[in-house]
Amino acid sequence: MSHAHALQTLRTSFDDLQHKRITTQAFCQTWRAQSALLGALPQRYGQVMEDLLGRMEAGSLFTEESCSFSQEDLQANLSVWLDKATQTLGA
């Protein structure tokens, strides 16, 4: 799978999550499955992504927004991550 295709997969899953077409678990699984993409990025990208995904999974256990696990804030950070990954790969 090309990097551009992997990035599109991430963008599609992000849109699906925002529109509640997939669960947080399915979203995180899709993102973690992009190992070739993560291998092409500096190591720090994988660390940051895993931290954000872990907090999303923990936050999804709450029915209301918690200041420690704001799903909206985590999604905003993942959007920034995705934009920076796209820039880094020149895709």
Question: Could you describe the 3D structure shown?
Answer:
This protein has 91 residues and is an all-alpha fold. The chain has one domain. 74% of the residues lie in helices and 0% in strands. It has helices at residues 3-18, 24-32, 35-40, 43-59, 71-89. Helix 1 runs antiparallel to helix 5 (71-89). The longest helix is centred in the last third of the chain and has 19 residues, at 71-89. The two termini are 13 Å apart. The mean pLDDT is 89.
Distance between the termini: 13 Å
Proportion in helices: over 70%
What is the number of E strands? 0
Q: Averaging pLDDT over every residue, what do you get?
A: 89
**Secondary structure tally, helices:** 5
Shape: globular
Domains (count): 1
Order of secondary-structure elements:
HHHHH
Instruction: Compute the CA-based radius of gyration.
Output: 13 Å
What can be said about the biggest beta sheet?
none
Strand content: under 5%
Question: What are the low-pLDDT stretches, counting only 5+ consecutive residues below 50?
Answer: none
Q: What is the structural class?
A: mainly alpha
Question: Which structural traits does this protein have?
Answer:
single chain; 91 residues; mainly alpha; 74% helix
